[in-house]
Amino acid sequence: MTSRGTASRFLKSVLQNGVGRYVCQLKRVSIRFSKKGQSSLGVREFIEEGVVDYAKSNPSTVVYVSPQPCRVPKIVAEYLNGNVREEIVTGKTSPQISELLTKLTDQSGLDIIRIRKPFHTDSPSIQGQWHPFTNRPPSVGPIGPQKQHAE
Amino acid sequence: MFLVGPFTRLHAVSVANMASGYILNRGVLTLGIHCQRVCRNVSLSQVREKKRWMKAYTYLMAKKLKLEGPPPPNPRSQQPHWDHHAEVQAFSSRLHENFSLEVLKTAFINPCYLQAEHKRRQGLGVGAESTALALEDNVQLSEKGASFTRSFLTDWCRASFPILPSDGVESVVRHLASTGVVTYVARNLGVGDLAMSAECPVPDDVLHSTFMAVVGALLESSGAEKTGLFLRDFLGPQLIGKDLFDMWKVVNPMGLLVEELTERNVPLPEPRLIRAAGASTVLPLYFVGLYSNQKLLAQGPGETLAAAEEEAARVALRILYGYTENRRPLDFSPLQQHQQPLNQSISSN
């Protein structure tokens, strides 16, 4: 679909994160995998080696690990602004899954849709936004081209 | 009614399977039915083809949703994957603060939750003594937190905007500590999940008092300085992008400006029409400038002359109080706690 037909948003941060102190936006990660299925092989390896290191290095995220009989292993990430993101990790290897978790940790929870402008500022103008009356001598009459003085 | 009909056909086929050992269900090739043996006498059958009852079922459920509305929200603590202790610890480390966990857990317990739990236990008919809730509520912590917030924010506003009069400082503080701003901050920090209350989603005033209780808990655990930094880092940025007169309702800006100028012994402002455009159209534009002693204080636009004069007075007040858009940004730098020991600087030579 075109960019007009799909959702879009402006560049922003949740609660002006980073201005005061940086708060990791990922609050909860639930890893659902199967104990015996082949698609969860990478997840099982990750849980054997990498998940404890990840949890120790990110004390602000709670990691829930739930082995269930399922065909499709999933990672569900919940963010502070309420958004929930599900990632399907069938057939991924353990390093790929730890990369994915790092990516999820670094994201803010805002939607992954087209960002209209790659910049945002709360103080757009220092000297004052230009309007058609800036740098014009005051006059009450009708607006017209300014008289250029002969130089 | 819709759902019984198609199923009778399946039951008839799977019952015939019981006597056979490894013979497949005879419906596999003709009807596309897959039989999964659970044990010797029981088998579950599934239809892989297009299910004739699906459309009717979907429409029925959509109609039910339209009639009854969406299902009531469930608090996160009652959904799967929740460990209260771990969540409280994570909350504490997420904010880079050292809370004492017992005080923090008390801060999340609201009196409405205790009452609801008490009623529920009475309703279950269990003896009141054996199931008495040994939990305290957060009312005292909340009061402490609220009073500390107000006093700290007043001091901080006075320090950041030294020229702003006390009315203005009060309005700014009232805005920052108001239910709207505090609940927005609290929901985006995860307090909404942890707060225990009778209703879900947590109502605004309950969330406000829970956040204040968290502030009170931080005050007890870490002291006033750290709590002050916490408030500055989370409530302070809510001032970014806000205009002074959004928060401070001034009814007569011209009168206030005249008072301010008389206090500073500056001659009183005279309004003059600087620019006019489109006077006879639907959207006229007038620029009125305020001159004091023939020097321009401020100019402001408006649709009518009176509106333009009021706007010019507001612009003049903003310049006077130092609350313009292009002022120096507020200081959110972390406190420099460590001082370079002298030995290091010598050895690095």
Gyration radius of chain B, rounded: 34 Å
Strand segment count of chain B: 5
Largest sheet of chain A: 4 strands, mixed
Distance between termini of chain B? 90 Å
Q: Point out poorly predicted stretches of chain B.
A: 1-21, 338-349
> C-alpha Rg of chain A, in Å?
26 Å
Strand order within the widest beta sheet of chain B: 3-4-5
Main sheet attributes: strand count, strand direction, barrel closure of chain B: 3 strands, antiparallel
**Poorly predicted regions of chain A:** none
Cα-to-Cα separation, first versus last residue of chain A: 57 Å
Oligomer class: heterodimer
Order of helices and strands of chain B: HHEEHHHHHHHHHHHHEEEHH
Share of residues in helices of chain A: 10-25%
Mean pLDDT of chain B: 86
Structural class of chain A: alpha/beta
Strand content of chain B: 5-15%
Q: Based on DSSP secondary structure assignment, what is the total number of beta strands of chain A?
A: 6
Task: From the structure above, extract its key features.
A: 151 residues; alpha/beta; 4-stranded mixed sheet; 6 strands; 19% strand; elongated; B: 349 residues; two-stranded antiparallel sheet; disordered N terminus; disordered C terminus
Quick recap:
The complex is a heterodimer of chains A (151) and B (349). With 151 residues, chain A is α/β, with parallel strands linked by helices.
Overall description:
The complex is a heterodimer of chains A (151) and B (349). With 151 residues, chain A is an alpha/beta fold. In chain A, 19% of the residues lie in helices and 19% in strands. Chain A is built from three helices and six strands, in the order E-E-H-H-E-E-E-H-E. In chain A, strand 4 and strand 5 form a beta hairpin. In chain A, helix 1 (41-49) packs across helix 3 (94-106). Chain A is elongated and about 85 Å long. Chain B starts with a helix and ends with a helix. By secondary structure, chain B is mainly α. Chain B has helices at residues 4-15, 27-31, 54-68, 84-94, 101-107, 111-123, 139-160, 166-176, 179-187, 191-194, 204-222, 224-234, 244-247, 253-263, 305-321, 342-347, and strands at 33-39, 42-47, 270-277, 285-292, 295-302. In chain B, strands 3-4-5 form a three-stranded antiparallel β-sheet, covered by helices on one side. In chain B, strands 1-2 form a two-stranded antiparallel ribbon. The relative contact order of chain B is 0.08. In chain B, helix 9 crosses helix 11. Chain B is extended and about 105 Å long. The longest helix of chain B has 22 residues, at 139-160. In chain B, strand 4 and strand 5 (295-302) form a beta hairpin. In chain B, 51% of the residues lie in helices and 11% in strands. Classes of the chains: A alpha/beta (151), B mainly alpha (349).
